Amino acid sequence: MWRGDAASRALGMSLDEVGPGSATVSMPVRPDMVNGWDLCHGGLIASLADSAFAVACNSRGAVTVASGFSVEFLEPGRLGDVLVAEAREVSLRGRSGVYDVTVRAGGRVIAEFRGRSRSLDRRIEPPA
User: Would I find Hydrolase among this entry's keywords (predicted)?
Assistant: First the structure.
């Protein structure tokens, strides 16, 4: 899944770690990612968290998609920051899951994200 994720790649994200129900994805804040207040655009912070969530909820080998998410912005990301999103599985019942993602820059918590997932009830096919 990550190999074909052109959107995450275009934003300069890197997959740093993945395990059962967890993932860590990072992204440097570039000049083209700041808004009119010279802060990282909130949509890009949400995109980073969503990418970590996607990897975590697909890490068990079932094709899984988002059914929704919410995000709380706590501090701004700034030009030059390296944002790190750590996703962890909170609950997995049948085809539904809940995942929390914390986005940090250094020691600062930038955002808290909660994602809801739904498995499509089929296995991820290995790349050809």
Answer: yes
Q: What is the CATH number of the domain that holds 16?
A: 3.10.129.10
* pTM > 0.85: yes
Dihedral angle, C-alpha 5, 6, 12, 17, nearest 10 °: 10
* Separation between Cα atoms, residue 52 and residue 18, nearest integer Å: 9
What residues pair up with 114 in beta bridges, in sequence order?
A: 70, 100
Which residues constitute the domain of residue 109? 2-123
Closest CA to 113 of 126, 125, 128, 103: 103
pLDDT digits (tens, 9 = 90+) for 12-47: 999 999 999 999 999 999 999 999 999 999 999 999
Question: Does a structural domain hold residue 47?
Answer: yes
Q: What is the rounded CA–CA span in Å between residue 127 and residue 98?
A: 27
Q: Where are the alpha helices (DSSP H) in the chain?
A: 6-10, 42-58
How many separate domains does the chain show? Answer: 1
